[in-house]
């Protein structure tokens, strides 16, 4: 799929990438306590005795976290392990009050799965690749150190301590920054469709550890580094490129890549060393003695499967196959769950307003949404979530275009006024006299005037320069202030120019 190479002084190098994505599970409580998980709360205001590791406190698994992990596994076609177990990962850090993290090493809840990615937005089926997923395990998050609150001390905020995470570990199957970006974007999209993670990377509820190594094309894997807590698709791609180039330069200068943990500095677009990478046995993993193994029943797994929504790939295929949309339009409409939901609400309302089937109005609705509506929102620096009008109001506007009450040109003006005033399309059209005219006499008079003023262009048209027909249409629409029926203009112009 990718021919991406780093051009070094001694030849070409191939980059090998694997991602470990930490996704905060959508739930009102933490993994082993009932504490809240709301973003932006006052420091240490969402901490139970369990989260603070007070003596004698015992963890109790949150069933909803287990359910969401299973649903996520099913969405990526992964093996669901009926038997899984929690382990203690032992290490000391100031934001880890227990002195260990409860995770899953030996027996994760989800086994091998896969993700289909594409690098071509215009034709998502043209250039695809399957990225293997090794496992998903459930674990608790650590707290957070705050270094900017005091000149000589760091403060500890335990609000995140015990928050439920899914760690989604890919195979080292990606070979370019673009593939890594496409994988992370697709994974985020699926999590948001499923509802198991909100995907808000800017709030830390989804972040990626980026594993990068380089090799001569076809050689054995090289030594990898891990860049921690990268919080955007763009930064993940930047990490891959900058770290791969650093490793190539290091090797070609006679140095050696060491396995280590690194941090990314977006201001300087470079990674820097954080600490040497410990191997798994240094964490002294052992089964958590306070937690029984998880044993899932078939009925529970099937209930999770039945609760899944239509996922982006299936939805995109349906939009193309049943609604007749282009692959590009279908890809854009299904990339984000909010866009797909908005479009489907618009589609249903438009079909109802026009008394047609959804397939009959799908192209009109999708083209208008992706061009006119998104363009108008961009001008206001808004998105669908903050849109001043909803799908029902938009469908009313499309119905007025569909039944010939207004032209597409007038519809743009009406949309702007809907945003400004909050009034419905019908009210605005009536109030401002924007109805499309079918008065053939008035249109014929306008055409005659335009042809008389542009006799030279009429001669050129009759001489074979047929592209001028669009000029005459535009001039007629301008003369009629955009209110003339375009179909009637075309018919009368052809007759006048014959």
From TrEMBL:
Domain called Asn/Gln amidotransferase: residue spans: 341-497
> EC number(s) of the enzyme?
6.3.5.-
Extract one GO molecular function annotation from the record.
asparaginyl-tRNA synthase (glutamine-hydrolyzing) activity
Domain of life, per the record? Bacteria
InterPro entries, per the entry: Asn/Gln-tRNA_amidoTrfase_suB/E, Asn/Gln-tRNA_Trfase_suB/E_cat, Asn/Gln_amidotransferase, Asn/Gln_tRNA_amidoTrase-B-like, GatB, GatB_C_1, GatB_Yqey_C_2, Gln-tRNA_amidoTrfase_suB_CS
Q: Which reaction does it catalyse?
A: L-aspartyl-tRNA(Asn) + L-glutamine + ATP + H2O = L-asparaginyl-tRNA(Asn) + L-glutamate + ADP + phosphate + 2 H(+); L-glutamyl-tRNA(Gln) + L-glutamine + ATP + H2O = L-glutaminyl-tRNA(Gln) + L-glutamate + ADP + phosphate + H(+)
> Which keywords accompany this UniProt record?
ATP-binding, Ligase, Nucleotide-binding, Protein biosynthesis, Transferase
Matches recorded under Pfam families: GatB_N, GatB_Yqey
Which Gene Ontology BP annotations are present? Answer: glutaminyl-tRNAGln biosynthesis via transamidation; translation
Quaternary assembly: Heterotrimer of A, B and C subunits.
Could you tell me what this protein does? Allows the formation of correctly charged Asn-tRNA(Asn) or Gln-tRNA(Gln) through the transamidation of misacylated Asp-tRNA(Asn) or Glu-tRNA(Gln) in organisms which lack either or both of asparaginyl-tRNA or glutaminyl-tRNA synthetases. The reaction takes place in the presence of glutamine and ATP through an activated phospho-Asp-tRNA(Asn) or phospho-Glu-tRNA(Gln).
Q: Which PANTHER family match?
A: GLUTAMYL-TRNA GLN AMIDOTRANSFERASE SUBUNIT B MITOCHONDRIAL AND PROKARYOTIC PET112-RELATED, GLUTAMYL-TRNA(GLN) AMIDOTRANSFERASE SUBUNIT B, MITOCHONDRIAL
Give the family this protein belongs to, as stated in its UniProt record: Belongs to the GatB/GatE family. GatB subfamily.
Q: What is this protein called?
A: Aspartyl/glutamyl-tRNA(Asn/Gln) amidotransferase subunit B
Q: Which organism is it from?
A: Novosphingobium umbonatum
């Amino acid at each position: 799929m990718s021919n991406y190479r780093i051009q070094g002084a001694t030849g070409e190098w191939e980059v090998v990438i694997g991602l470990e994505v930490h996704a905060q599970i959508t739930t009102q409580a933490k993994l082993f306590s009932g504490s809240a998980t709301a973003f932006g709360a006052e420091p240490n205001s969402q901490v139970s005795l369990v989260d603070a590791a007070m003596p004698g406190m015992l963890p109790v698994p949150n069933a909803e976290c287990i359910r969401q992990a299973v649903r996520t596994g099913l969405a990526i076609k992964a093996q669901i392990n009926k038997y899984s177990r929690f382990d203690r990962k032992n290490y000391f850090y100031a934001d880890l009050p227990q002195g260990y993290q409860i995770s899953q090493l030996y027996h994760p809840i989800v086994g091998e799965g896969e993700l289909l990615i594409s690098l071509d937005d215009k034709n998502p089926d043209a250039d695809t690749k399957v990225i293997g997923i090794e496992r998903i395990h459930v674990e608790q998050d650590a707290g957070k150190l705050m270094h900017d609150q005091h000149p000589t001390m760091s403060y500890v905020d335990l609000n995140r301590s015990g928050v439920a995470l899914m760690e989604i570990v890919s195979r080292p199957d990606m070979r370019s920054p673009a593939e890594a970006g496409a994988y992370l974007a697709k994974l985020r999209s699926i999590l948001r469709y499923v509802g198991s993670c909100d995907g808000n990377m800017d709030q830390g509820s989804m972040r990626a550890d980026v594993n990068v190594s380089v090799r001569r094309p076809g050689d054995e894997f090289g030594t990898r580094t891990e860049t921690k807590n990268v919080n955007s698709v763009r930064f993940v791609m930047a990490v891959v490129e900058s770290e791969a180039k650093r490793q190539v330069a290091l090797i070609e200068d006679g140095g050696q890549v060491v396995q280590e943990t690194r941090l990314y500095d977006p201001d300087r677009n470079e990674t820097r060393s954080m600490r040497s990478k410990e191997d798994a046995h240094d964490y002294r993993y052992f089964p958590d003695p306070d937690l029984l193994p998880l044993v899932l029943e078939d009925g529970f797994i099937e209930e999770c499967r039945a609760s899944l929504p239509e996922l982006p790939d299936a939805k995109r295929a349906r939009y193309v196959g049943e609604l007749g949309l282009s692959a590009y339009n279908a890809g854009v409409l299904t990339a984000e769950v909010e866009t797909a939901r908005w479009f489907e609400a618009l589609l249903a309302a438009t079909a109802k307003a026009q008394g047609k089937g959804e397939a009959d109005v799908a192209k009109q609705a999708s083209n208008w949404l992706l061009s006119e509506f998104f363009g108008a929102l961009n001008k206001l620096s808004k998105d669908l979530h903050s849109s001043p009008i909803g799908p029902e109001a938009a469908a009313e506007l499309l119905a007025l275009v569909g039944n010939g009450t207004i032209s597409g040109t007038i519809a743009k003006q009406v949309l702007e006024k809907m945003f400004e005033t909050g009034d419905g399309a019908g009210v605005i059209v009536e109030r401002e006299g924007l109805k499309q005219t079918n008065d053939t006499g008035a249109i014929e008079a306008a055409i005659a005037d335009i042809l008389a003023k542009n006799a030279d262009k009429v001669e050129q048209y009759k001489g074979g320069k047929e592209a001028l027909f669009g000029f005459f249409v535009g001039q007629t629409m301008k003369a009629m202030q955009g209110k003339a029926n375009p179909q009637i203009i075309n018919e009368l112009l052809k007759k006048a120019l014959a």
